[in-house]
Amino acid sequence: GSNLQAVGAYDDYIDVDKVMTNDIYLILQTYGVEAARKALIHELSMVFKAYGIPVDNRHLSIIADYMTAHGGYRPFNRSGMDTAPSGIQKMSFETSLKFLTDAAMNAEIDHLESPSARIAVGEITKCGTGMFDLLQKIRA
């Protein structure tokens, strides 16, 4: 296990700014949500790196943002997707048929608010440069 508080007691001998742990919950409780987000990105990148899979950090940032968006962290798996508000977002994960069937049986409506739902139907996401329109007055 990890005990960051105990390590902090030895700051004369240990550089506490360089201490690492993969216990995301402990990081969240000790340092806050931004530190937990950064640790998630690091851990995800190490998993892909171990298998020699190159992944752009922006993709990992999106995952970490999703997991920490509400001030804690939520699972990025089937059970975590069950709570997603968007049916299409749920379908973009692993078990598309199950989520599609559930959405159809419950007459769910998707307002295409999540980036994955918008991408799935070919719409521009409402983030980054897709977040606004530029308008210019035309002179007559």
From TrEMBL:
GO terms for cellular component: RNA polymerase I complex. Residues 2-87 form the RNA polymerase Rpb1 domain. The keyword Nucleotidyltransferase applies. Keywords: DNA-directed RNA polymerase, Nucleotidyltransferase, Transcription, Transferase. Its EC number is 2.7.7.6. GO terms for biological process: DNA-templated transcription. One of its GO terms (molecular function) is DNA binding. The keyword Oxidoreductase does not apply. It is an enzyme of class 2 (transferase). InterPro entries: DNA-dir_RpoC_beta_prime, RNA_pol_Rpb1_5. Transmembrane segments: none annotated. Belongs to the RNA polymerase beta' chain family. This is DNA-directed RNA polymerase.
